[in-house]
Design a protein that fits this description.
By secondary structure, this protein is of the alpha/beta class.
Length: 470
């Protein structure tokens, strides 16, 4: 029994692990690599395994850095089942077609540039047809349900509290009389966040693969974050500009809408127009309404007449490109929520282009920004950014609200880990080196447990718990 790490090892995106047991192969997640153009170019490389020889795939959640290469896997020959929660399946019906459309657009743009240099065209990573084929291979698994996915391989999903349907994956392997329980944390959410329930720690594991995105720091408390969010809105109203919020279509957008509805009077939101400029986020929000069985108790109590949020009378949904472009002429009084969450594409680029150079405007960063992304450059305070080939001076005030993150901070990761009956030996992935190192030190010091930080291609022998070289 072996497990190898082929993504998010020493970085945050591109999650992908391969489990091999008694000749069977189970792939855990298959996500897009995000960041700089050089990073994203790695998505088109050959997989370090044969897709046709994979027997089953298990998907932790819908975010594109965990699901985004599944259509490529299918395009290259995978024909087996993809096991995941039904809410994740629904969200992938929204996210994966959008990823295919972006890939097609990027390929067309790059091909035009190459044509001017006499170079051959490039292909999109995958097509809408590949996405449709992929979605037909999905199989629903409910939280707490035990499913036999292969001989001697049993799957159970636990709520991870990250976004709707997000799961920690428990795989129990009974191979040739040897029983091992592997837990893959997926992305662990913060506790006491809006809408979704808190993360649940599986009780037992012989080995744990754990995320470490914020392993080196804690977020601000929820109370401090709400106070800061309200202060940003008050300051922006005084400055008489707009507020631009790059937000992931799934999770962060719904949290923001919920908070705006709940704090409508306190934050004087009647003085603003709130624009949700993302067809994908609009679709995802409808799924949040549909899956009210996954909402926490507070959300069910506050939502009036169903849904996932208190009433927000000034919310404007921008579905068409024409509706989005009209926002370019709005000079003040607009809160614009638009994708993408890391500012590496999508409608938010146009809004930054028209607002980032204006000192009366504000930019609110509410999620993790990977290295190499435009969002990361804004967070790092770079004075100039480049959008659509144009250099733009950043004069708008940039605010980073760490407490809005859908990822657990260090203390919450430690709280989640402490839920195991016995501390399992742990392999840390899904974190940049500084974050991963800090969490490894904390886990070792508090629990006297073996903590390994695998590199890409490295793995472990699940029988002996020894590290395998790449």
């Amino acid at each position: 029994m072996k497990l190898r790490f082929y993504g998010a090892a020493g970085e945050v995106t591109g999650s992908c692990c391969l489990l091999e047991a008694d000749g069977m192969r189970v792939l855990i997640d298959c996500g897009l690599i995000q960041g700089s153009k050089r990073d994203e170019a790695r998505n088109a490389a050959a997989f370090p395994f044969d897709p046709e020889k994979i027997d089953a795939v298990v998907l932790s959640h819908a975010h594109i850095d965990h699901s985004g290469r599944l259509p490529l896997l299918v395009r290259r020959g995978y024909r087996g089942p993809i096991y995941t929660h039904r809410a994740t399946r629904g969200l992938c019906r929204v996210l994966l077609p959008d990823a295919a459309a972006l890939s097609r657009r990027d390929a067309e743009q790059e091909s035009r540039r190459r044509a001017r240099k006499g170079l051959p065209a490039v292909e999109a990573l995958y097509t809408a047809e590949d996405v449709a084929a992929t979605l037909r291979q999905f199989h629903n698994v409910d939280f707490g349900e035990t499913v036999n996915i292969l001989p001697g391989v049993r799957l159970r999903l636990h709520e991870a509290g990250h976004i709707l349907g997000a799961a920690s994956i428990e795989l129990e392997l009974d191979i040739a009389g040897a029983i091992r329980r592997l837990v893959y944390s997926g992305d662990i959410g913060s506790y006491d966040m809006p809408i979704v329930r808190d993360p649940v720690t599986p009780r037992q594991a012989d080995m744990l693969v754990m995320e470490s995105t914020y392993g080196d720091r804690n977020h601000r408390s929820h109370a401090e974050t709400l106070a800061e969010l309200g202060e940003v809105l008050r300051s922006a109203r005084h400055d008489q500009g707009n507020v631009i919020i790059p937000a992931f279509a799934v999770g962060r957008t719904q949290d923001l809408l919920y908070l705006f509805g709940r704090h409508w009077d306190e934050w004087e939101l009647s003085r603003w127009k709130v624009y949700l400029d993302s067809p994908m986020a609009i679709q995802a929000s409808q799924l949040y309404v549909t899956h009210d069985e996954l909402h926490d108790e507070e959300t069910r109590e506050l939502a009036q007449g169903g849904g996932f949020m208190p009433p927000l009378p000034n919310l404007v949904l921008c579905r068409s490109p024409e509706e989005s472009m009209r926002l370019n002429h709005v000079r003040h009084g607009a809160i614009i929520i638009a994708g993408s969450g890391m500012c590496n594409g999508g409608r938010v680029l146009h809004h930054l282009k028209h607002n980032a150079w204006r000192p009366e405007c504000h930019v609110m960063i509410v999620g993790f920004q990977a290295r190499g992304t435009l969002g990361r450059r804004l967070v790092d305070g770079e004075p100039w950014i480049r959008i659509h080939g144009e250099a733009i001076r950043v004069e708008a005030k940039v605010h980073t609200l760490g407490g809005m993150s859908a990822h657990a901070g260090q203390s919450e990761l430690l709280r989640w880990y402490a839920g195991f009956e016995q501390p399992p030996p742990t392999w840390l992935i899904h974190g940049e080196p500084q974050a991963r190192n800090a969490l490894a030190d904390e886990l070792s010091a508090r629990h006297d447990v073996q903590v390994t930080r695998p590199a890409s291609g490295e793995g472990l022998d699940l029988t002996t718990l020894q590290t395998l070289d790449a």
